[in-house]
Specification:
This protein is α/β, with parallel strands linked by helices and 286 residues long. The chain has helices at 2-15, 35-48, 72-79, 96-112, 127-133, 150-156, 158-161, 175-186, 207-221, 225-251, 254-265, 271-283; strands at residues 23-28, 53-59, 85-91, 117-122, 138-143, 164-167, 196-198. The chain has a seven-stranded parallel beta sheet with strand order 3-2-4-1-5-6-7, with helices on both faces. Strand 6, helix 8 and strand 7 (196-198) form a beta-alpha-beta unit. Helix 2 runs parallel beside helix 3 and helix 11 runs antiparallel to helix 12. The longest helix is centred in the last third of the chain and has 27 residues, at 225-251. Bound molecules: guanosine-5'-triphosphate and magnesium ion. Guanosine-5'-triphosphate binds at residues 29, 31-37, 69, 71, 123, 168-169, 171-172, 200-202.
Length: 286
């Protein structure tokens, strides 16, 4: 297991000199908001602009759906034989740490392989998604009317995390009201004010505007490839180290765990001390 993680690291060493050129954008938002459909519309638009596209779909919530999170439309695009589109879907098979390590490796490899635009789809608006979407340079928050989750998102701090807001399903009632609410909320953060883009993913309307907004937000950042490479290298290293640590902890023998637990229960050890001890045990050379 650990060898597997570190084998992947050897592959990455070869690709890293070429990482940092792609625009990496995360699409996040509540289940059913239309992320996959919107990504498909953006792929079509990006291909018309001559861009090579990679998509990584991540489902941290469910080991059961497998790759089902990925919209059929995206899959159809990929299977239509367009070699300019590469799609990879990742589901939570074990720990989240493993998932974000796997996702960051796929993004790095796609970048090194020359994809111009890499889109990462994550479901939901919680902590785990923030971790995964941290791989991206930019985040598009996909909202849709009638889901009643605007207020919840503001609470969760997700609005502040996004660089562009897409009001999808603009063909449905309530879309204009939602756009106004988002425009008002956009002014609350300290950074640049995210633009609010109306889209109807099912027809492709607004996809060109959304892509323009993504590229404009990216241009405003002006990160040199070398800087971006270093940022991503740090993310990938931290994710891999986290994965190795989780594997080591899972592999600890019951006796040592029991000894640490006993010491804690008998008051010979406090919690921070017990955690330190467990970490030290996990990191002992095998
Ligand atoms: N009316 C309308 N329906 C849409 C639009 N975009 C997507 N849908 C529909 O909304 C449903 C959910 O779309 P998805 O693209 O699967 O949404 P998602 O956010 O990727 O969903 P999860 O991956 O499950 O979180 C599908 O039935 C789509 O056909 C739109 O612009 N208008
Ligand atoms: Mg989806």
């Amino acid at each position: 297991m650990e060898e597997h993680t570190l084998d992947a690291a050897a592959v990455l060493a070869a690709v890293y000199p070429r990482v940092g050129r792609a625009v990496v954008v995360g699409f996040t938002g509540a289940p059913g908001a239309g992320k996959s459909t919107l990504i498909a519309a953006c792929i079509t638009e990006a291909r018309q602009r001559g861009l090579q596209v990679g998509v990584v779909a991540v489902d941290p919530s469910s080991p059961l759906t497998g790759g089902a999170v990925l919209g059929d439309r995206i899959r159809m695009l990929a299977m239509a034989g367009d070699s300019g589109v590469f799609v990879r879907s990742l589901a939570a098979r074990g720990h989240l740490g493993g998932l974000s390590a796997a996702a960051s490796r796929v993004v790095d490899v796609l970048d090194a392989a020359g994809k111009d635009l890499i889109i990462v789809e994550t479901v939901g608006v919680g902590q785990s998604e923030t971790e995964v979407s941290g791989l991206a340079q930019l985040t598009v928050l996909v909202c849709a009317p009638g889901m009643g989750d605007e207020v919840q998102m503001i609470k969760a701090g997700v609005l502040e995390m996004a660089d562009v807001y897409a009001v999808n399903k603009s063909d449905l009632p309530g879309a204009q009201g939602l756009a106004r609410a988002l425009q008002a909320a956009a002014h609350l953060g300290n950074g640049p004010i995210p633009p609010v883009i109306a889209t109807t993913a099912s027809t492709g309307a607004g996809a060109a505007d959304l892509l323009d907004a993504v590229y404009a937000a990216h241009a405003a950042r002006v990160t040199a490839p070398a800087q971006e490479r270093m940022r991503r290298l740090q993310k990938t290293l931290a994710a891999m180290a986290g994965q190795v640590l989780q594997q080591r902890i899972a592999a600890l023998d019951n006796a040592s765990l029991q000894a640490i637990g006993q010491a804690l229960l008998q008051g010979q050890q406090d919690f921070p001390g017990a955690v330190q001890q467990l970490l030290a045990r996990a990191l002992e050379p095998g």
